Amino acid sequence: MELEIALDEQVELCREGDRKAYHQVYHRYAKGMINSSMRVLNNLADAEDIVQEAFVDAFNSLEKFTYRSSFEGWLRRIVINK
Asked: Is 18 exposed, middle or buried (0-12, 13-18, 19+ CB in 10 A)?
């Protein structure tokens, strides 16, 4: 539970524009998101590009994240939809 509290705080800091929080969230999830993207695309360069775009979209749409699901699940859905 402690990790989820820390993540909630990081998400809120991202909403406030905290660059360190963006960096921490990115590094927490980037590898897993690339793995998910690779399953669909089968090309590392394309997978990395999609993940970068997905993080930009996610960070620009944080007001739409309502904690109904996990942040990871919400982010993964953005990656897969891309």
From this structure: middle
30 Cβ partners below 8 Å, 6+ apart? 51, 55
Distance CA 36, CA 60 (A): 21
Show the tokens assigned to 55.
Answer: 């993080």
List Cβ neighbours of 46 (8 Å cut-off, separation of 6 or more): 37
pTM strictly above 0.70: yes
Q: DSSP for the chain?
A: -HHHHHHHHHHHHHHTT-HHHHHHHHHHHHHHHHHHHHHHH--HHHHHHHHHHHHHHHHHTGGG--SSS-HHHHHHHHHHH-
Q: What pLDDT, on a 0 to 100 scale, did the predictor assign at position 3? A: 54
CB contact at 8 A, 6 and 70: no
